[in-house]
Amino acid sequence: xxxxxxxxxxxxxxxxxxxxxxxxxxxxxxxxxxxxxxxxxxxxxxxxxxxxxxxxxxxxxxxxxxxxxxxxxxxxxxxxxxxxxxxxxxxxxxxxxxxxxxxxxxxxxxxxxxxxxxxxxxxxxxxxxxxxxxxxxxxxxxxxxxxxxxxxxxxxxxxxxxx
Length: 163
Fold this sequence. Notes:
single chain, two-stranded parallel sheet, globular
């Protein structure tokens, strides 16, 4: 089967540099550190760690063993910012938001979680969230860093062989 999917545009994936050149790596690591220490009031769903692992191994082409080590180190902080709960009701609500706002089901889950825990701000550079009423979307990264990141991802995507 041929893989032609585009790399996700909404995740800087601080778990790995991706080819050693990810221009958002340092900024993302610093931002996540602020979340883990609760300097920034935000939640990190543990399910997003699994998603980030997929992104950095598939799209940023990081070796799984290296990513696993970084994920374990991250989780060992046992930060109160980690959100471990996924309920049946939140999954059902996620699907409802995905359908209502024409967003991906995963994004619907992020919306559902934000509303459930009383957060009105989502930190992302995924513009799809702008469709959702009642949320404030904040990109934690400067425009120039974003431009370099997208160039980097495009270059990685072009060099990736599909099977």
